[in-house]
Design goal:
Helix content: 40-55%
CATH architecture of the largest domain: 3-Layer(aba) Sandwich
Order of helices and strands: EEHEHHEHEHEHEHHEEEHEHHHHHEH
Strand order of the largest sheet: 1-5-4-2-3
Shape: globular
Number of helices: 15
Structural class: alpha/beta
Largest sheet: 5 strands, parallel
Distance between the termini: 58 Å
Number of strands: 12
Length: about 350
């Protein structure tokens, strides 16, 4: 009989001192339980060796090699990562599906005397739990959608709302992308789809259904990452608030917000050719030349009038059912003080509407 407990996913986020992911580093990097630390019992190469042996020779030979490697790696973890853990330590261990890898680690930790648990069904069960929750959680929440043309400060208004204590679902922050064709962040690649969904699930679980959740109007994708269908449908059926800002203020805001392009024009000129199909080589070459000559106000103004604003007008009536009835927020400036006051007014009006 196992001398460690096997627990269901519903118990996985109880007061464990550590959640131990014993899968390979590549599996961990793709996604993992929130707060889990990586303590692989097989590294990437070892896992590949065992898998190849399993398919090309025999399961017995693969298990024999795997057991030797796992024992060696667990010994390393005991001597290093776990050497300072007290007798009262309560770890939760998981692998891909609650099999040999996590069972071996859990058994040895329990033999030492630690109060050890193993996640039933492993990461596979957790992943199923997340996907199921993403189908239901959006229906339990009340969203307020922040819309507006490119450069109208939607994301910054979300930040201001969060600073005022409002509930905010910042999809671009979770996806590490600003949502447009030129929206990838320097030296910050997007997470995997699975990691994005874990982050989204964590955020949705944290919200109080009695209070509104502010969210920026997004398409079905943020960069290369896809939003869950249920969230998209719920978002598009929700009340909208639209920010309207004069173009000069939007140009100034974008120049500040995308300062990495101004500091390194090649980051922009490498991406502008992506617009050739829409605007032709002559126009995109002109934009590249403006960037190379640091004529930023002209470039940003032309990108708004010729690319982003027409795209916004084409898409603004699609999907969002309450956009025509949106409350209008007219701002002359997008400085922090204006956004703070706008956030305060939104929260105040929401409270008045609920009284």
């Amino acid at each position: 009989m196992a001398n460690y407990k096997r627990i269901e996913i519903s118990q996985a986020f109880n007061a464990f001192d550590d959640i131990l992911d014993v899968r390979s580093p590549a599996e961990y990097a793709d996604d993992h339980l929130p707060g889990a630390i990586s303590v692989p019992v097989l590294n990437n190469e070892e896992r590949a060796r065992v898998g190849t042996l399993y398919t090309q020779v025999s399961p017995f030979e693969a298990k024999k090699l795997g057991a030797a490697l796992i024992a060696q790696n667990i010994s390393h973890h005991l001597q290093h990562q776990f050497s300072d853990r007290p007798k009262s330590w309560r770890p939760l261990v998981y692998c891909w599906r609650g099999g040999m890898r996590s069972g071996s680690m859990a058994h040895i930790l329990a033999q030492v005397g630690w109060n050890t648990s193993q996640l039933e069904g492993g990461y596979k069960n957790y992943r199923r739990h997340v996907l199921t929750a993403l189908e239901t959680l959006p229906h339990q929440l009340r969203f307020c959608v922040i819309s507006g043309s490119t450069g109208s400060g939607k994301s910054h208004l979300l930040h201001a709302l969060a600073e005022q204590g409002a509930q905010v679902l910042d999809l671009e922050k979770l996806a590490q992308h600003r949502g447009s064709l030129l929206g990838s962040l320097p030296d910050q690649p997007q997470p995997s789809q699975k990691t994005f969904e874990t982050r989204l699930w964590e955020a949705l679980c944290s919200f109080n259904p009695e209070r509104p959740v502010y969210i920026e109007a997004e398409s079905r994708k943020v960069g290369v990452l896809s939003l869950p269908n249920t969230l998209v449908e719920r978002m598009r059926a929700s009340p909208c608030v639209r920010i309207e800002v004069p173009q000069p203020a939007r140009v100034k805001f974008l120049m500040d917000d995308y300062a990495h392009f101004l500091n390194n024009p090649s980051l922009l000129t490498d991406r502008l050719p992506l617009l050739v199909e829409l605007h032709g080589k002559e126009v995109t070459n002109r934009w590249c030349e403006l960037a190379q000559n640091s004529e930023w106000e002209t470039l940003v103004g032309e990108l708004l009038t010729q690319h982003y604003d027409p795209a916004y007008k084409r898409s603004s009536g699609i999907g969002f059912q309450q956009r025509d009835n949106a409350s209008i927020l007219e701002l002359n400036s997008l400085d922090s003080d204006s956004l703070r006051k706008t956030a305060e007014n939104l929260i105040r009006n929401e409270r008045l509407n609920n009284e």
